Automatic annotation (TrEMBL):
Signal peptide limits: 1-20
Protein's UniProt name: Uncharacterized protein
The species this protein was found in: Mesorhizobium captivum
UniProtKB keywords: Signal
Entry keyword annotation includes Signal: yes
Length: 136
């Protein structure tokens, strides 16, 4: 009986999604330092409403577009993570797998497995840390 309980508990633990890596990105990132300055001057919501995408540890967020990060795994030999995500825009939901690489303390690069010329927007690109900007 004890073996059966241990097996059930082990299966439950294995079925849970992996927690985010402790040292994953923190804060808010936008696609240029100019957008960060604009978000500080105005608001982050104003920058998002203008059609820009914000990156945070939770995923990507824009007007009528988002990608929720589901699993985050840290690479052993680099400051990089493999991320699985579910992305959606009106009328369309799709999975994505991205590499997230910290190039410097202020710059992160995302590379998506989705081709950039697909009908839907790609998730690849550079993002810059916006010091002093918080999510709405």
């Amino acid at each position: 009986m004890a073996l059966r309980r241990t097996l059930c508990v082990s299966m439950l633990v294995a079925a849970r999604p992996a927690p985010a890596a402790d040292d994953f990105i923190e804060g808010v990132y936008l696609q240029s330092e100019e957008l960060c300055a604009q978000a500080k001057k105005d608001t982050l919501q104003t920058v998002i409403d203008a059609g820009n995408v914000v990156l945070s540890a939770d995923g990507l967020q824009g007007v009528e577009y988002n990608c929720e990060f589901l699993q985050i795994s840290k690479a052993h030999g680099a400051t990089s993570w493999a991320v699985t995500a579910i992305c959606q825009e009106p009328g369309y939901v799709f999975p994505d797998v991205l590499s997230v690489t910290q190039l410097s303390p202020k710059q992160i690069d995302l590379v998506s497995v989705r081709p950039a010329d697909s009908e839907q927007a790609g998730n690849s690109g550079s993002y810059y840390h916006c010091e002093g900007v918080a999510l709405p």
